[in-house]
Amino acid sequence: MTDSQKKTPDSVQLPGSERARARAAEGTGEPADADQIIEVTLILRRQEPIPAESLVRPMAHEDFAARHGASSSDLDLVTGTLTDLGARIIESDAASRRVRISGTVDLLSRLFGTSLENVTSRAPDGNATVHRQRTGFLTVPAALDGVVTAVLGLDDRPQARAQFKPAAAAPVSYTPPELGKVYGFPPQTDGSGHIISILELGGGYIDADLATYFQGLGIPAPSVSAVGVDGGTNQPINDPNSADGEVMLDIEVAGALAPKAEIIVYFAPNTDAGFVDALSAAAHASPAPTAISISWGQSEDDWTQQALTAFDQALADAAALGVTVTAAAGDNGSPDGATDGKDHADFPASSPHALACGGTRLEADPATGTITSETVWNENPHSATGGGYSDKFPVPPWQSGVVSAGKNGKKHPKKRGRGVPDVSGVADPQTGYKVRVDGQDLVFGGTSAVAPLWAALTVRLAQAAGHRFGLLQPALYNTTGPGKPAAGFRDITNGNNGTFRASAGWDPCTGLGSPDGTALLKLIRGSG
């Protein structure tokens, strides 16, 4: 490296980049290997904001890139500046506003005004993990001030946990097709001509298990393929309680409920950069998916503001491109697993650009589809559906009629923000989903099962309606009001998730309720 490349450039602080020390971080604090080559994702500013009407009226990708992507001059400035300073450009994409670079730890630490150390900390799933850590704010070269809005991946701590729950014993369980009958999925639809993309931050699937599972259901196995992002791969761990359980649950639920849809699984590292890059890759893919299912997340307060904003903007990209993103609302009740005595919303479900999916306990006759009981999922003290109010996002316009103004109570004294979840479905592992993982037939629950269920329903609704939707919520909330049940839903009025209780109409436990797919189709056709 030349002396000019070793020089630290004039720099400015990057807003929203402040990062705290990792949870329960331990170790010697030894610096990361200065010569190690690492990769980082930069997010650039938009040319124009996305107008609200574009979120429900999908744009062509070319039009989107020209108006709402990064400008060619910004791309040239960023790539040229960083190349001159010694970084290597791996890829750049104007539509998703991303530039992927690599360099040594020493170089990238100097370029972005930080230091990296190796530590062991507690991951969002509670397991010990070894990773690079940084603290405090980042800086960017002064020439890129206002152009670069996020620098992700320097700190590679795990960003999310899988939201699934194995059942120790399940007195009641259902196959996904049985749930399609219970929830009234539109008949004469099977997902033909549509794509469901699934984001995974670990684990993998085994083709032989999928073949056995779908053969047992008596339906053809769907087309399933894997796409690697940032070095992620389909890599089964051979442990059903690992991320393999999440991957197989997602594919089997989506594939059994929309068997003729193409399933594309995006595998990425469990980091802020990996998560954002996987979403952007899926949202901007050609041909575009109809739905993206996300079963990973953690408290929105455990994200840096720059990463949270970058992810939310990628969700907005998806909506503007006609893609509906379904996201699990969490499996740890109103605190979302936090130990500070306060309530927290899970992200990305708390984004107004994601369809947040909460959980219920369901008792139904699978032969007739008749529901005898459906209540809030709460196995206190073990697990419960996430739900509550965001601290990061205000109440969106389509939710203003049901999320009342005011505070959230003693545990959450801030002004109410975006309410979570929007919708729900069965998630209690005691009334869970029959799955096959790593050669074993098991029963799983968790709101991570509800995300692919709603992704499959979205695909079948789109097939029947003849078009993709983008942001679904404006149509779903259109018939409801305070205490008023929404058309197309079974209102859940019994139970709690900790602080919050179910009630008539929307509530922060199960949202609008569980679906009646046939009635939802009539609603969507009427609103279109």
Q: Which descriptors apply to this entry?
A:
alpha/beta; 528 residues
Overview of this protein structure:
This protein has 12 helices and 27 strands. It is α/β, with parallel strands linked by helices.
Q: How would you describe the shape?
A: globular
Helix content: 10-25%
Could you give the distance between the termini? Answer: 59 Å
- Radius of gyration (CA) equals 22 Å
What is the number of E strands?
A: 27
Strand content: 15-25%
Which stretches are low in confidence, meaning pLDDT under 50 for 5 or more residues running? 1-5, 405-410
Main sheet specs:
8 strands, mixed
Concise description?
With 528 residues, this protein is α/β, with parallel strands linked by helices. The protein has twelve helices and 27 strands. Helices cover 24% and strands 24% of the residues.
Topology, please?
Layout: H1 3-6, E1 11-13, E2 37-44, H2 61-68, H3 72-84, E3 88-93, E4 98-104, H4 105-111, E5 117-122, E6 128-133, E7 139-141, E8 148-152, E9 161-162, E10 165-166, E11 172-174, H5 176-182, E12 195-200, H6 207-217, E13 224-228, H7 243-257, E14 262-267, H8 272-283, E15 291-294, E16 296-299, H9 305-320, E17 324-328, E18 346-347, E19 355-365, E20 370-376, E21 388-389, E22 419-420, E23 423-426, E24 431-437, E25 440-445, H10 447-465, H11 473-476, E26 489-490, E27 514-515, H12 517-527
Parallel strand pairs: 11-24, 12-14, 12-15, 13-14, 15-17, 17-19, 19-23
Antiparallel strand pairs: 1-7, 2-4, 2-8, 3-4, 5-6, 9-16, 10-25, 16-18, 19-20, 21-22, 24-25, 26-27
